[in-house]
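Here is an idea for our session: we take a single protein and study its fold together. Start from the sequence, derive the backbone structure tokens from it, and show both lines together. Once you have written the record down, we can walk along the chain together:
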Amino acid sequence: MDEQSKPIIRDHVPLNRLKGKIALVTGTARPRGVGNSVAKLFAQEGAKVVLTDIDDRVWDCVKALQDARFEVLGFKTDLTKPKEVQEMAEKIVDRFGRIDILCNVAGKSVPPRPPCLEMSVEYWDMVMDRNLRTTFNCCKAVLPYMVKQKYGKVINVGSPTGPITVYRYCAAYAASKGAVMALTKALALEMGEFNIAVNTILPGDIDTADKPWTPKDGPRDLSIFSKHLRPPISRPAMAEEIADLALFLATEESRFITGTEILIDGGLMIVEPVPMGPT
């Protein structure tokens, strides 16, 4: 594992807010991705964390956490296949006895993004599989255990694209992420009586590149837009900032929050899309 791809355990003062909890986090392979950051933060906060991805790099994150003396378990799983997901859930319960937290991060906006009228059914199905079927399959496999134990936290990672806004040539992606939010609300309504909270995080632009944004880089180059469209916080989110919100939704501090979506975009969505006033 080279230094560039090695997952970094960030400097964090743990408060053991997830001590004794068992957390399953999907989409954990990308070294600087949201799933990777969520898994590391949950482990630092005392959870026993299960990491899964279809990408072999999931083992890098598992090893990094094991080397840091955290108790973690890894699976290479195709989350679009219900049988594989069910078998994974059974193995987790066999090992740990329960699953308290499910964080569904796995998903992707898949280029090239064709115009709707040129989109094949195969492309549509592929995007729905990655962004919606993965979330549904994991909920379907894990929720019965949460119902039995009468406790659970489900955190689905969606997108503002679909529920709030769209861009050109995003029909499949927008539909899939809008459906994730609708699924969250429906599950929250059904699961509430079992003390299970289900919520969606809607991240804006996230910096997951190999070279991270740093404060010395200054504001993002938004010269292609009018100065009136500059968001309040002119930088991408760090994956760790999305993880911080996931941690809050995983703790008892969020016990009265369910069936909702929380936008975390640096104020990007409050900007009026048509510049008004003098230029």
User: Anything to note?
Assistant: Confidence is low (pLDDT under 50) at residues 1-8, 274-279. Helices lie at 34-44, 58-67, 82-96, 121-149, 171-191, 239-250. The chain is about 35% helix and 15% strand. Residues 90 and 141 are 8 Å apart (CA to CA).
